[in-house]
Amino acid sequence: MIVKAAAKINLMLDVVGKLPNGYHSLFMIMQSVSCYDTVRVDRTGENGIKIISSDERVPKDEKNIAYKAAEAFFDYAGISDRGIEIEIGKKIPMAAGLAGGSADGAGVLYILNRLYKTGLDEFSLCSIGEKVGADVPFSLTGGTSLCVDTGGVIAPLPAISDCFIVLCKPDMGVSTVNAYKQIDEAQRIRHADRTAMLYAMKNRDTALMYEKMNNVFEQVIEVPKRPYIKQTMKRCGAKAALMSGSGPTVFGIFTSEDEARLCFNKLKMQFGETYLTRPVKRGIEEV
Ligand code: ATP
User: Fold this and answer.
1) Residue closest to 88 by CA, chosen among 71, 68, 105
2) Of the residues 14, 37, 104, 135, which is catalytic?
3) pTM higher than the cut 0.85
């Protein structure tokens, strides 16, 4: 079975404190976008989880989020017959703040629930996913959502107005672990206006949403090309431009397709990993 697994952007990302278990408590407004990995999972009849991908950067062992998701699923469902092959077609830029690994993990959970006819509901799949990675529950459900704490508590929000979203990843990777360390070491974080943003999202007040979009990681993660990319997006007509996740990808939101295309063409010449996308309503889709 094969699925498409969508990337996400953060329309808002704030770190609001620490949970009793020591994890960071997050406030994230997430949006799925039409940039997809493909995930194929088949049963092999032999024991063991095998990962294949034509992209040599994709880990092929237990470090892969897709592998961890499969193991967590088998543990949860009490399945000992674990012979599967996972093939990952990588298109979502890696270590980019776009939750590519989480999307693959979500794809694996979705498929295994069908292959093994376990009939788990979305809530159960999300709780398995949350243990594997903060963005897995959202990657399973997709659309537009508020995710808090470690990513597991999700409230669906009204879909954002149709638009065009340019993703541009400068040629550097950001380690998520290091990004949280920087947050911990920062003297002071200027928090996002979460109340106004939620109000904007619930009331589909797009102008207010553009104004309140905020990612606190921009205060601690230095991405030398970020000001240039944002400026290029704004000059082309972007209504808002922001870094996604812990970076370094920057996205710009456009209401005009022509302006978005112009921006895409400009940035694509300088940054190979540039994509023109649309917001989508689902995280996982069967192919
Ligand atoms: P997030 O926005 O959730 O922080 P990200 O886009 O920053 O995610 P990923 O692309 O998901 O980061 O992965 C970051 C690292 O995780 C990679 O450098 C890679 O070594 C490892 N990894 C594990 N599984 C995968 C996978 N299926 N696809 C890509 N990277 C993976």
Assistant:
1) 105
2) 135
3) yes
